[in-house]
Specification:
Order of helices and strands: EHEHEHEHEHHEHHHE
Largest sheet: 7 strands, parallel
Radius of gyration: 18 Å
Distance between the termini: 29 Å
Number of domains: 2
CATH architecture of the largest domain: 3-Layer(aba) Sandwich
CATH class of the largest domain: Alpha Beta
Strand content: 5-15%
Number of strands: 7
């Protein structure tokens, strides 16, 4: 299927590895020009080179910086002639017990996983509406739907973003101008983030890491962890011309792990 987005410009955040990189790969494969940003310059440049090799017909611009800061956002936005597609993504806060977290930990979580995406949407969606096309995909977490007790910082911050998007996406000034805003909720994907969380769980429980990994893998009826490329393919479809009637939704990609009907 031709997704109808070749020649568009996308800003993909936290794109040097993991799910962000998977989204950037899928968009580049569809002929989308991309600005990729992440904090680690070396890994980001390696990813940018990989993306250029994947599709030499598109332009790939790499901007190293912290998207959770005003300066990082300004640099990333300045690198794109325009932003037709915005993929919001940022590393999640550390696991732990809420009794250990002071105000500073909560503010950092909100800055990264709620306020930064909101700031980027504020900077881009009105121009998208003026051009008559825009796609925003926020990478949140399956924990928004089924909270994980040790990820309280993430549960809280990402749930705040989810509530905000529910209202913003339904504004006629956006939805009526072919601007869609949706959230992708990953479950257990094979990423550094998952491995870190499982390692912390193993240390806390005293169980061997391999046993913890295998137990988590079995939680999904699919019997495996997801891959960044299949996540990216789903993201690319949400950014497509064909997805214009789909907005304000929370899409759970978890291999069937969530047991509910709704």
């Amino acid at each position: 299927m031709d997704l109808g987005i070749a020649g568009r410009w996308a800003l993909v955040c936290a794109a040097s590895k993991g799910l962000g990189k998977g989204c950037a790969r899928a968009l580049v494969g569809e002929g989308v020009n991309v600005v990729v940003t992440a904090r680690g310059a070396e890994a980001l440049e390696a990813t940018a080179a990989e993306l250029r090799a994947l599709n030499p017909a598109v332009e790939v611009r790499a901007v190293a910086g912290d998207i959770t800061t005003e300066a990082g956002r300004a640099a990333a936005l300045a690198a794109a002639p325009q932003v037709d597609i915005l993929v919001n993504n940022a590393g999640g806060p550390p696991p732990g017990d809420f009794r250990q977290w002071e105000r500073e930990a909560w503010i950092a979580a909100l800055d990264a996983n709620m306020l930064a995406p909101i700031a980027l949407m504020r900077a881009t969606v009105d121009a998208m509406a003026a051009r008559g096309f825009g796609r925003v995909v926020n990478i949140t977490s399956g924990a928004v739907k089924a909270p994980i007790d040790v990820l309280g910082l993430s549960n809280g911050a990402r749930s705040g973003l989810t509530g905000f998007v529910a209202g913003l996406a339904r504004q006629p000034a956006l939805a009526g101008r072919n601007v869609t805003i949706n959230n992708l909720l990953p479950g257990a994907f094979d990423t550094d983030r998952l491995r870190g969380t499982l390692a912390a769980g193993a240390a806390r429980s005293g169980q061997p890491l391999e046993a913890v990994i295998e137990a988590r893998r079995r939680q999904a009826p699919a019997g495996r962890f997801g891959t960044a490329d299949e996540f990216g393919a789903f993201c690319a479809f949400l950014c497509s011309a064909q997805a214009g009637f789909f907005t304000g939704q929370n899409l759970l990609l978890d291999g069937g792990a969530y047991p509910g009907t709704f």
